[in-house]
Design a protein that fits this description.
- The chain is of the alpha/beta class.
- It has twelve helices and 20 strands.
Length: 431
């Protein structure tokens, strides 16, 4: 069975834990889009490991991990991440591979990302300024450079110098910024090429060969459905496609090879950066959610905006992606709330909306409609059995299933791998 795990909100849903939990039952774990702006946190034996480019399955010593061609790669960040996981006695050698067709992030991407963001002032998107967006812009504009070109030095030099001359013109005339040194970047990236060479393969051939052999593949998305470039709250979105379509282009496989899709959602909603957020809580309750849930970005450390679970947007995510099962994380964060709410729909200018709107100007004006629940006021942290959940917590989960029209297969009750409830009656994997 080949499974996709994707974020069903605005990212930061806890995908890392879910992928880590499932990985030991799969032969290969693949990352298919995004860049090192993603932050997937895994907690094993009280050790907190934050991954950015490397798939969360790397923690399991028998699991092969693939970074697909749809991911944009900063080689310096990749090499640092490899060294970081080795400190946790995780050896990736021989089982971690990068596509030769990944597009490279260069210093000019990061610099332009930051300068463009700063120039927007109050209209900032909220990018991490790690060069992800500008790299994807070059990819779409057919001006990007793939990893494979690093191994053809003369061609690489010719193309890179053309690109840097273009970027230096923008830096000088738009931002009045000093030009970048072409030779320095060229020499630096040639060295990166040698250092990452043992990890670089044709991942499209590899993954299709593995599927034909009957190996079990787990696909791991970055960000979330509502940050999808085409189906999210544009322009406050990622520069890639976290949705299932991203696998087809980002890994080079047929859609018929995906057997099951698991959407990950928190028991409430969060968002990092700018953009519409209808259920956001601006007062004391929002701050309490942030503090109890430790809602700070794994990559940037930025505080996340917090609010009640948006069931209307979650229903949209399930419908457009074909999510078969939901994994609900951080249920324990709600343990001490006397009253809990779920948004069931929006009104816009007095009219009830039938479908989630992606237009930011509409979302900024909608009025959420809520279903109110009495809090369970009992500890759920660490519970591993559905039967041991407080009755009111079960009622809350059942309401999520009804609103989203999607079964819940996994409930996370803590950050550790095994602080998890598996609902076997609804889930195709055997635990």
């Amino acid at each position: 069975m080949n499974i996709l795990v994707l974020g069903a909100q605005w990212g930061d849903e806890g995908k890392g834990k879910i992928v880590d939990l499932l990985s030991e039952r799969f032969d290969v774990v693949c990352r298919y889009q995004g860049g090192h702006n993603a932050g997937h946190t895994v907690v094993v034996n009280n050790q907190r490991i934050v991954l950015h480019l490397i798939p969360s399955g790397i923690i399991h010593e028998n699991t092969i991990c693939i970074i697909g061609n749809g991911v944009v790669v900063n080689p310096d960040s990749f090499l640092k991440e490899v060294e970081d996981i080795k400190k946790f006695k995780v050896n990736p050698d021989g089982r971690l591979f990068i596509s030769k067709d990944c597009h490279l992030i260069f210093p000019y991407h990061e610099l332009l990302d930051r300068l463009n963001e700063e120039s927007l002032g109050k209209k900032k998107i909220g990018t991490t300024c790690k060069g992800i967006g500008p790299c994807y812009e070059d990819k779409i504009g057919r001006k990007s450079i793939k990893i494979s070109m690093l191994y053809y030095p003369d061609l690489f030099r010719e193309i890179l110098f053309e690109r840097i001359e273009e970027k230096n013109f923008i830096l000088k005339h738009k931002f009045n910024h000093p030009e970048l040194n072409k030779n320095e970047i060229y020499e630096t990236y040639l060295k990166y090429g040698e250092k990452i060479k043992s990890y670089v393969i044709d991942t499209v051939k590899f993954i299709n060969d593995e599927i034909e052999k009957g190996k079990k593949i787990l696909f791991e998305g970055a960000q979330g459905v509502l940050l999808d470039l085409d189906h999210g709250t544009y322009p406050f979105v990622s520069a890639s496609n976290p949705n299932p379509g991203g696998i087809l282009t980002g890994m080079g496989i047929s859609p018929s090879k995906i057997d099951c899709i698991i959407g990950v959602s928190k028991a409430y909603t969060t968002r990092v950066g700018a953009g519409p957020f209808p259920t956001e809580l601006h007062g004391k309750i929002g701050h309490i959610l942030r503090d109890i849930g430790n809602e700070y970005g794994a990559t940037t450390g930025r505080p996340r905006r917090c609010g009640w679970l948006d069931g209307f947007s979650l229903n949209y995510a399930c419908r457009i992606t074909g999510i078969n099962y939901l994994a609900i994380t951080k249920l324990d964060v709600l343990d001490d709330f006397k009253e809990i709410k779920i948004c069931t729909g929006y009104k816009h200018k007095g009219k009830k909306l039938e479908f989630f709107p992606t237009e930011w100007w509409i979302l900024n004006e909608v009025e959420p409609e809520y279903m109110v629940f009495e809090g369970w006021m009992e500890k759920t942290k660490g519970i591993k059995s559905h039967q041991k959940l407080p009755k009111r917590a079960s009622v809350y989960l059942e309401a999520i299933e009804k609103i989203t029209e999607t079964k819940i297969s996994i409930v996370s009750t803590g950050s550790d791998r095994y602080e998890t409830i598996i609902l076997n009656e609804s889930f195709p994997l055997t635990f």
